[in-house]
Amino acid sequence: MNTTVAPASIGTVEPARAVEQLDPAVDASLVTLPETRMSVDARGLALGILAALASIFALSWAQGFVVPLLLGIVLSYTLSPLVAWLEAIRIPRIVGTIVVMASVIGAVVLGTYSLRGQMQTIIEQLPQAATKFASGLARLRIGETGNLQKIQDAATAVERATTQAAGGSAAPRQPATRVTLDPPAFKLGSFLWDTSMGALGAVVQATMVVFLIFFLLLGGDTFKRKLVRLTGPSLSKRKITVHILDDINGSIQKYMFMLLATNLLVALLCWIAFRWIGLENAGAWAVAAGLLHIVPYLGPGVTAVATGMAAFMQFESFPMALLVAGASLAIATVVGTFITTWMTGRIAHMNAAAVFISLLFWGWLWGVWGMLLSIPIIVIIKVVSQHVEQLHPMAEMLGD
Fold first, then answer.
1. What per-residue confidence (pLDDT) applies to 19?
2. How do the domains of the chain map onto residue ranges?
3. Residues with pLDDT less than 50, the chain
4. Closest Cα to residue 328, out of 342, 355, 307?
C-alpha cells in the first residue's frame, strides 16, 4: 500500500513532530523537512545601535548637567534616613533638613580646618620635594647612563674586532644630527586664568549640588508619589513602581554606607601604617587616602604616588618611598578586594565583570565622576531590570 504525504501537511507541523506523524510504512529518510532559520530583524538592530550611540553622545554632551544631578540624587538618598528619623520624633521636615545639611557641611569644614596645619606644611614642601625627587632621578639616570655606556663601548670593541678580522677597516661614524625643538613658551596669565575658572566652576557645581540635595530632602516622598501616579491607574504597575523605587533607595543607601565604612577603614589603617613608619603629617595623608579611595583604582594610585614622594622628601631614600607607597597600595588592595567586594556582593549581588565593565565605560565617558557614579548607576539599572519583564536578560547579565 502506497502512502503519500502532502508537502503542505509537513510544512505546517514542527520538524521534530513531522516524522512522528508519518505512516510507519514510509521511509523517514526519504522525507525532506523544511530548514529552520533564526530570523533577524536587521532594521530593528540597526535602529537599536543608532539609538545607543545617540544616547552615549547625549550623555557626554550633557555631562555638566547630568553628573551634578546624579550626584545630588545619590547623596539625597544617603541623607534621607536622617531627615526621616528627625521627622519621626516630631521635628518639622524643613528644620530636620536644615539640621542635617548644616551638620554635614559643618563636619566637612571642621575636618578640613583641623588639618589645615598639616595641609599647609605639605603644600609648602612641594617645591623642595620636587627638587629632591628630580635630583634622585638624575642620580639614577647617571648610573643607568654609565651602565649603558659600558655596554655600548663593549659592543663597539666587538664590532671593531670583527671588522679587522674580516680584513676591512672600520669606517668612522658620522655623528647623528640632532634637531632641537624650542618648547612652547609658558604663559603664566593663561595658566592662572584657566586654573581660576576651573576652581570657580567647581565651586558653582558644588553649590548647585548642595541646593539640589536640600530641595530633594525637603520634598521627601513628593517625587515618589508623582512617579507612582504617572504610571497610570493600573494597580499592578503602581506596585511595580513602588517596589523599584524602594529597592533603588535601599540599594543606594547600603552602598553609600559600605563606601563610608571602607573609606574610614582605609584612612584608619593608613594612619596606623604611616605613624609606624614615621611619616610626617600622617593624619593628613591618611585623610587624603580615605577620600581618594572613593574613586576606584585611580584614587589608590594617586595616594601611593603622593605618599611615596613625601616619604622620599623626608627620608631621602627610595626604599623608604617604596615602603610607604607599597603600604598604602597594600591597604587599599586588601580593603577593596576582600571587604568592598564582599559587601558589594551582599548588597546588590552584582557580577564582578559587569561592575568592572561599567567602571571602564562610565570612566571613559565622564572621567573621575563617571568612575565614582558607575556602581550606583549599574545598581539602579539592575534593580529596574529585575522588575521589568522585557529587561530580565539585562538583570541576568548583571547578576552574580
1. 47
2. 106-137+206-398
3. 1-16, 19, 22, 144, 169-171, 176, 179-183, 186
4. 307
CA 115 remoteness from chain centre? 28
Q: What is the pLDDT of residue 254?
A: 81
pLDDT in tens, 278-301: 888 888 888 888 888 887 777 888
**321 grid coordinates:** 618611598
How many other CB atoms sit within 10 Å of the CB of residue 308? 22
DSSP label at residue 390: G
Provide the whole-model pTM: 0.64
Residues 6 or more apart whose CB falls under 8 angstroms from that of 204 comprise none
Q: Please give the Cα distance from 399 to 118 (Å, whole number).
A: 44
H/E element holding 23?
Answer: none
| Secondary structure (H, E, C), 53-120 | HHHHHHHHHCHHHHHHHHHHHHHHHHHHHHHHHHHHCCCCHHHHHHHHHHHHHHHHHHHHHHCHHHHH
Listed in sequence order, the DSSP H helices in the chain are: 7-11, 15-18, 42-61, 63-88, 93-114, 116-124, 126-165, 188-219, 222-230, 235-277, 282-292, 298-315, 318-334, 341-348, 352-366, 368-387, 392-398
Amino acid 262 reads T
171 Cβ contact partners less than 8 Å away, ≥ 6 residues apart: none
| Region for residue 367 given its phi and psi (left: phi exceeds 0; alpha: psi -120 to 50; beta: otherwise) | left
Q: According to the model, what pLDDT value does residue 12 have?
A: 46
Contact 299, 270 (CB under 8 A): no
> 92-146 pLDDT, tens per residue?
888 888 998 898 888 888 877 776 666 666 666 666 666 666 666 666 565 545 5
Q: Which helix (H) or strand (E) holds 41?
A: none
Taking each helix axis from N to C end, the angle separating 368-387 and 341-348, rounded to the nearest 10 degrees, works out to 30
Residue 350 forms beta bridges with which residues?
Answer: 399
